[in-house]
Amino acid sequence: MAVPLPSEGTRWRCTLCGNLTRFDVTRSSRVVEFVHLDLAGDPTVEEREVLSETVESVRCRWCDAVDQIELVDRPGAEAEAAEQAKRG
Hints:
two-stranded antiparallel ribbon, mainly beta, 1 helix, flat, 49% strand
């Protein structure tokens, strides 16, 4: 089951234990990378373009729950949005 990514106004929360800060995220990505090899042959990724990305699962590090992660509002997110609307 795909899990939505948090946005500027939301974050993940485990509905089982209440964890807001520690998660193991399994994701699939399609990327294009510019890899620079130095003269010794050691690679360094200098540019990375994400073509697509899907979060496959999010597991709570505290209680190991996999299917109990939800999106909740971040504290102060509404106030920040209102402040930005006034400026812009």
